[in-house]
Amino acid sequence: MVASRREVSKSRVEVTSADVPFSGPEGNLDAGSPLGGARGSTPAPGPDPRFPGRGGPLGLEGTRGRNHRLVKIHNRALVLRIIQQNEMISRKEISRLTGLTPATITTIANALLGLGLVLETGKDTHSQGTGRKQIYLSINRARHKIIALNLGRSMVQRAVCDLAGHIIHRSDKYVRLIQDNELVMERLEDAVVEMIRELIREFEVDTASLLGISIAAPGPLNAEKGIMRGTHRETPAPFDWRDIHLKEAVQRAFGVNVFVDNDANISALGESWFGAGVGVSNLVVYMIGIGTGAGVIIDGMLYRGEDDVVSEIGHVTIDFRGPRCRCGNVGCLELYSNFHNIIDFYDAAGGGETAAGEPAAGEPAGRRAAAARLDSESAVARITDIFRRAAAGEERARAVLRDHGDVLGVGAVTLANTFSPEAIIVSANDLGDLDLSPLLERIQDAVRRRAFSVIADKVRVIPSTLGRDVTLYGGIALVLQDFFSNIAAQGEGGSTTAVGS
User: Fold this and answer.
1) CA 44, chain centre distance (Å)
2) b or e along 128-150 (b: 16 or more beta carbons within 10 Å of the residue's beta carbon)?
């Protein structure tokens, strides 16, 4: 089955502050330009040596262009990304969008054509007057493939994608990776390797064409080393991965670049590259559903924090007298915001039978009495049904979702006050095709009423446009940002293949 990319990803790329080209022969940047910040401001530091190539959308860590080599790398990567995010685009239009000279665009485009990454796709029939007709450039989709995996809380998603960011083959399976605090898959490395092998066999993927493999998963991960971390506590926390060296295992099996990252971080990249966050420099992706988390983009770059653990909003205390969470904290937001609670409260409100055939007990949020006994597919079906009932006007369902939206609003206010984003993009992760409007109204209302006034006046609460595929698109972005910066750097540091200047 072929799934096309969401419509928003087909629109012309917006050049954000992270994408503005460096100017001048030595890359000096006007301090009043979007990337340079306000006139008189202190320049941002250069790349963080701990995380080479893992910064913003182009992997350049917000560098200011004081080094001429980095200027050229940035501009090449920028041109390649703009071509990638457009179905067809002329050299003239790329020059207009980037501010780079036509001669520079021609040099870079010719180098990308020589590498087979870009194609000339036809003449511009709309050109008028005399002179040479413009020729469109487009990404060579057949050149490379990307495999993206999402080890979700309720399902495993697998996809084969092309260089343009389209999902061309996919396979989804409902499964709980964790149950009763123990991994269902005792040998997760072997299981993931086999899942990838099945995908390659099923869709006859030429492994020689693979650019890389991305893997998204909940819980603490070391993205640089690709290690799914354990908590080293007597009582295991949710998704206590016991220090699984997943990147090493997958890389050994397939011999390609492998990227492992937290699902919230990957979702933030997905929205920034392909979804509702295109053109937004500062955003938070608020992940809701079976779990609760957040990914953060600041000044066009993914914010990782120390040890790749950022904004565990689901484990912020909202009731210091509340029940103990498996993370070790008490009264965590996720105990109350988990969508399993929607099932329990809906059943309790009806005074009828739960899905397990027992009377609804009206347990406090976080107990998940009935929902916890459902398998993943049944739980998703129940949640989806309640949302459909609310959309059809059933008051019982609408009331439950209003109350749940108020709970989620607590987390959104905290995110707004902490990061002061332009937008909070709400994603239901593996449940992402739900109509979230009943929740969004309550979340936006909470932010307007309770966030710090300057922040409340500007921040927008908007739905994800990528649905349940947000982590797949984020995985594509994760591979592409590394690829673009590496391709752009060819010809520097000893490589014999130049990519223009």
Assistant:
1) 25
2) eeeeeebbbbbbbbebbbbbbbb
pLDDT of residue 335: 94
Q: Looking at residue 78, what is its pLDDT?
A: 83
Q: Distance between CA atoms of 245 and 241, rounded to whole angstroms?
A: 10
Dihedral, CA of residue 192, residue 195, residue 200 and residue 203, to nearest 10: -150
Phi first, then psi: what are they for 334, rounded to 5°?
A: -65, -25
pLDDT value for 376: 75
**pLDDT, tens digit, 9 for 90 and up, residues 385-440:** 999 999 999 999 999 999 999 999 999 999 999 999 999 999 997 787 789 999 99
Q: Which amino acid is at 423?
A: A
Q: What are phi and psi of 162, to 5 degrees?
A: -105, 180
Local structure of 448: helix, strand or coil: helix
DSSP letters spanning 213-258: EEEEESS-EETTTTEE----SSSPPTT---SEEHHHHHHHHH-SEE
For the chain, how big is the Rg over CA atoms in Å? Answer: 23
| pLDDT at residue 193 in the model | 92
Q: What is the end-to-end Cα distance of the chain in Å, rounded?
A: 40
| CB < 8 Å & 24+ apart, contacts of 326-334 | 326/181, 326/235, 326/236, 326/237, 326/238, 327/237, 327/238, 328/233, 328/235, 328/237, 333/292, 333/407, 333/410, 333/411, 334/291, 334/292
Instruction: Give the relative orientation of helices 246-254 and 188-202 as an angle to the nearest 10 degrees.
Output: 40
Distance from C-alpha of 171 to C-alpha of 174, rounded to nearest angstrom:
10
pLDDT at 129: 54
Round to whole Å and give the CA distance between 136 and 119: 8
Nearest Cα to Cα of residue 267 among 428, 144, 483, 482: 428
What span, in angstroms and rounded, lies between the C-alpha atoms of 333 and 350? 25
Task: For 151-186, write each residue's pLDDT tens digit.
Answer: 887 789 999 999 888 999 999 987 766 553 344 445
**Ranges of the chain with pLDDT below 50:** 1-66, 180-185, 232, 235-237, 352-368, 491-501
Yes or no: say if 492 and 111 are a contact pair by the CB < 8 Å rule: no
d(CA 461, CA 16): 20
